[in-house]
Amino acid sequence: MQGISFTAIDFETANSFRASVCAVGLTKVRAGHVVAQRIWLMKPLPGYTEFDPTQVAVHGITAARVSHLPDWRSAYGPIMDFIGGDALVGHDVSFERSVFAKANEASGFPIPALEFHCTLELARQHLQLPRYSPSDVVAALDIPAYNHHESGDDARASALIAIELARRTGSSTLAELWPSSEKPVAKMPGYYSAGYTRKLADLPKANPLANPEGPFFGQTVVFSGDLAAMARVEAQDAAAAKGATIVNSVTKKVTLVVGAEIDGGTRFSAKVKRAHELAAAGQDIRVIGELDFMRLLGDE
Asked: How far apart are CA 262 and CA 257, in angstroms?
């Protein structure tokens, strides 16, 4: 597996905002073997410093633990040096990609032209499982158990998942392992920009293999505006991966509207207003904000 070389990555954030990065784990792979690992803890960037108790319960990182450490602006250079020119691999890597973008945006840094590959996508292609959380995939591949939501362990788990699936599929390069790989973010200038609206044919399909007990499974969801933590298309992808049907308009089939704040929450979009009208008329439809959406997204 000479061509199976990359860096696996995992971020943890202090709250639902992607710019609130507080930890990153990196695992370097060369020719199908783990050769190096690094973990950076950091305090969140100014303006994103609140530690949400829900997030702390997941990863165990507290404000006190990182208050004396540099933030992303200081860690970014050494992190990029460790990555070098590698492609980045992660489980549901859209999260890692958006953390890079949002943290750099908040720091005034350019978004690097990085290549991303997703082990969640890979597992869905090659395994038949009820669920595809990192723990489920690790167990299915007989990879040693690990400490989920510890950034170093999560990055190593993603690396080992990619290595094992490369071995099972006989892939000797990343292009063979991910034949339809994601393009670097710098080559998609409009796709994740604010206000971007997909055409109906381009909306993501509901994942039929998602957890049927999950909060989004079977829901028909409309997003109104871009969230602070991620662009609308990323939020659509995340909800569809959990089994939601994504649409662009509020109709009598819609069960959930995710509304971004407008003017600090002092007014509502036309979609949110329409949802309230339908709810008042007896339709089973509800409106939630970004914080509730991010919390629901974190549910298995």
From this structure: 15
CA 233 from centre of chain:
12
Beta-strand pair 33-41/220-224: unpaired
Query: Which residue, 117, 154, 164, is CA-closest to 134?
Result: 154
> Left, alpha or beta for 84 (phi > 0: left; psi -120 to 50: alpha)?
left
- Contact status, residue 56 vs residue 23, Cβ threshold 8 Å: no
Positions of E strands within the chain? 6-13, 21-30, 33-41, 88-90, 116-118, 220-224, 245-246, 256-259, 286-288
pTM to 2 decimal places: 0.64
CA-based torsion, 242, 243, 249, 250: positive or negative: negative
Rounding to the nearest 10 degrees, give the CA dihedral for residues 243, 246, 250, 253.
Answer: -50
* Residue 267 DSSP one-character state: B
In tens, the pLDDT along 255-290 reads: 999 987 654 443 467 888 889 899 999 999 999 987
- Tell me the C-alpha distance between 240 and 76, whole Å: 31
Domains, the chain? 6-187 (3.30.420.10), 200-297 (3.40.50.10190)
